[in-house]
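Structure ticket #2291
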Amino acid sequence: MVRVRYLLDTDTVSALTRRRPSEALLLRMATTAREDRTTSSITLSELLFGAHKAGARSTELVTRIRAALPRSPLIPFDDAAAEEYGRLRAHLEAQGTPIGQADTQIAAIALANDLTVVTGNVRHFERVPGLTVENWLA
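Resolution: structure written out below.
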């Protein structure tokens, strides 16, 4: 059984919902096994929030979001992630470099599950000690 390796951040999944995703992203998706990538319940909640704010387009956007989700099960924000989140948020705030609640939760999920975060928002996630980050959007 192949273990999931990559946790797609909100901006990466969002890019997949566009009518014309970037060539760089499509290439990485094509060369990475489906079983190797997933996303989190936090990312799904952020995407659905944005879709439901879109009014008349919300049904179309929800459909596109669901189609863009990796086939692997979503990784939840569980007890292990909560422990990482508490430690990480305290550390980042003490350093004066907080990254926002959703990004901290996504980073915590990645740390708790030993996953690489795939994001275009490298600047935020590079502040997280011990987190591996890749940008498939560039």
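Closing remark: Residues 6-134 form a domain with the Rossmann fold fold (CATH 3.40.50.1010).
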